[in-house]
Amino acid sequence: MSLRINNDNFGAYCAKFSNERACFQALFDIKWPDGYRCPQCGDPRFYLISTRRLPLYECRACRVQTSLISGTIMEGSRTPLHRWFQAIYLHTQLGCVNARQLSAAIQVTYKTAWLICHKIRRAMTHAESGRFLSGIVRVSDTLYSKRLTPTFEWHNQEQLLLVGASGDSSEEPDLIVVEHQSKANLRDKYDCTDPTPFIHKHVAPKFIKDTVFTRRYGKNMNQTLAWMGYHITWWAGRIFRGIGPKHLQAYLNQFCYYYNRPSHTLYDELLSDCVASQRITYKELIRSTVSRRLTRCSPRASRPASQTG
Fold first, then answer.
1. How many domains, the chain?
2. Which residue range(s) make up the domain with 155?
3. Is residue 148 part of a domain?
4. Quick one: CA dihedral 36, 39, 41, 47, positive or negative?
5. 43: buried, middle or exposed (CB in 10 Å: 19+, 13-18, 0-12)?
6. Is 212 within a domain?
7. What is the spatial distance between Cα 162 and Cα 32, in angstroms, rounded to a whole number?
8. Does residue 171 lie within any of the structural domains?
9. Phi, psi (rounded to 5 degrees) for 158
10. CA 195, CA 113: separation in Å to the nearest integer?
11. What secondary structure, in 3-state letters, does the chain show?
12. Whether the Cβ atoms of residue 21 and residue 80 lie closer than 8 Å to each other
């Protein structure tokens, strides 16, 4: 599947950030919007050490050295900064990009592209983790990868989700939170988990008692939320060719990240969130993936990722 992007826009972006030096000032402004501050003592004075691939900033007071990518998702990466910038840009275009598309677009290996995608997804998850729903809050269950079969039994690909939304009306929510739910203890595909833990986790305390919970069927169904699973399934299928339950939550966070932000600020916010989020290494990703799979007794625990990621 080829990546169809606006070549003029992407070409102009690549020309703007065509080398490492072009990225330095942009990262500096995001990392220290009010000017340099030592991460150790807060002193604003520094010596610039520019003899390395990336400049180092040495505090004049305590002599601690820090780089532009320390404390970011790019920390420890050997991928050039302008490739990272291109990857972040492409993650804000046309509903996202998968690892194979990214590999071809920015000319890196599939493994590197896969890792970049997961790190960017990690930054999105970190940004969404502190969000609480407030005001008029509605919650509903919905299904990911729903199969239109006249049976009460779960299909292997079907996954139960809870969707929380806040907004002035039920037509188009302003903010959403989507969480993958276990179906292990459910009687059948029309059963639902207790929404109370979800509500207490994602709704601001003062609005919990007024939160309205409805099912995905029946006369009180909130159609917007009940059909959210369909939109997520379509999005995941179009870009990633579907997602298994082991990694589903990370992609749900990514979907919410896009939904909860206006398109004209998406790039600036994602770049800032990538700078503000801590890195995760390839070994940590593999270890956490294998750990989750072994916990669920998966027969293919040694395979770390989907084909398109």
1. 1
2. 137-259
3. yes
4. negative
5. middle
6. yes
7. 38
8. yes
9. -75, 135
10. 37
11. CCCCCCHHHHHHHHHHCCCHHHHHHHHHHHHCCCCCCCCCCCCCCEEEECCCCCCEEEECCCCCEEECCCCCCCCCCCCCHHHHHHHHHHCCCCCCCCHHHHHHHHCCCHHHHHHHHHHHHHHHHHHHHCCCECCCEEEEEEEECCCCCCCCCCCCCCEEEEEEEECCCCCCCCEEEEEEECCCCCCCCCCCCCCHHHHHHHECHHHCCCCEEECCCCCCCCHHHHCHHHHHHHHHHHHHCCCCCCCHHHHHHHHHHHHCCCHHHHHHHHHHHHHHCCCCCHHHHHHHHHHHHHHCCCCCCCCCCCCCC
12. no
Q: Which tokens in the block code for residue 69?
A: 């990518």
pTM: 0.88
**Is residue 176 in a domain?**
yes
Q: Which two tokens stand for residue 119?
A: 């790190």
Residue linked to tokens 């840009």: 89
* CB-facing half-sphere around the CA of 273: CA atoms within 13 A: 26
Q: What's the CA gap between 172 and 166, in Å, rounded?
A: 9
Provide the residue-wise pLDDT of the chain in tens; the chain has 309 residues.
444 555 678 889 999 998 898 999 999 999 999 999 999 999 999 999 988 889 999 999 999 999 999 999 999 999 999 999 999 999 998 778 999 999 999 999 999 999 999 999 999 999 999 889 999 999 999 999 998 877 889 988 999 999 999 987 667 899 999 999 999 999 999 999 999 999 999 999 999 999 999 999 999 999 999 999 999 999 999 999 989 998 899 999 999 999 999 999 999 999 999 999 988 887 887 776 544 444 343 333 333 444 467
Which has the closest alpha carbon to 283: 120, 83, 70, 115? 115
Q: How many residues does the chain have?
A: 309
